[in-house]
């Protein structure tokens, strides 16, 4: 007799891992003891221009819509959602898209799940280019589908034979989290190839209104059984809590999906709010969305330019309301960086959950100029704090090594494998890679203040200070720091007894004179 499982759930459900998302305001408020109103969320990609209500985009205010919806809430919603579907079709500005092509959704995630439920059977294959939005994988695994991962740059080279093996290929445009925007002409060729292979091209266009709606395939989806387009209203209208989205498909596919979706999946308030947004004059080219795109492009490029000045920050393309940042040159992991920013009340997206990115990337939203400036300023604070902690740890490790006798007397610790070697002079002693006295602010050392463009301020630079890298000085500092006393007090003592005499040229070895000869190239 076959033994029953400990619970009635299917095996693929029991082993399912959830999808990581941004926007964890309440959770972060509780974790870091920061009031919600003081948290700045750069982890969720919403329209920084503000809601249509804030911008008075020719709409009734939210209270009025809520009052009208309340009157209708005593009855079940009209499950046809004709007002919403007509408005969505009009919004797309495509002659061949009508209400019959629209599938209303309680957010775009419901649309993904509905489509996967209706298309996939046990063991079917789907193609997911990576890195990309994690919900495709989750919703496919719910149907026990097999995932075929391909690098996102190889999408256009897939053969019809490779496509034919899969039921669906998912394309996010612009892609989350890379912000890469694919051109319509390239996607049209892919759509033709998918149609011949009878593989559905699932186009996630959640951010296209905030990027370039002219690259959409909504008109193709309305007439092609093997193209499906998904749109999200929560991103472009900056109201994620209302949960609104819709799909676009050929009439026969849309009819089937509307029969299969959950009954009454939109409340009267959702339908009225969505219809109001979608009915704005001009649709995707409304004044509200046109100004939104202009602001986003300006601020995305501003952030990209400013963050490019930060060593170890390499922002990706600026096409929409978020940036992917490569941080692999920093020794901080993405998770550590997220934690440090959160302590300052700023949430950023850890990209560790995106396949292929590991701990080397973060994603940030594009927000208002004032908020973007605050983010840039916080970058400096985070790295300053990290550098101080790192220097302290380095000092303690150095002292521990010295105490256990791993350093042989008089041997120079040159670290010739260091990518910055020699950062001061050939043959330097690198025991104190990070100076324990930083910032000493004493220009007699050779250190000086330099202008930092990323902070628009002066910072202390040790580039021309040689003193802590001369072996005789290092040995004296190490011996003194081994005394049984608090490190800060020992450092003060070392400065007075070792460094100051050097600066005043009263030391026996005339170290400062030696430093000057190094600078002059005489040694």
TrEMBL record:
PANTHER family: HISTIDINOL-PHOSPHATE AMINOTRANSFERASE-RELATED (PTHR42885), THREONINE-PHOSPHATE DECARBOXYLASE (PTHR42885:SF1). Keywords: Aminotransferase, Pyridoxal phosphate, Transferase. Residues 414-486 form the Cysteine-rich small domain. Its EC number is 2.6.1.-. Belongs to the class-I pyridoxal-phosphate-dependent aminotransferase family. It holds the Pfam family zf-like. The keyword Cytoplasm does not apply. GO terms for molecular function: pyridoxal phosphate binding; transaminase activity. CDD domains: AAT_like. This is Aminotransferase. Its cofactor is pyridoxal 5'-phosphate. It comes from the Archaea. Residues 38-377 form the Aminotransferase class I/classII large domain.
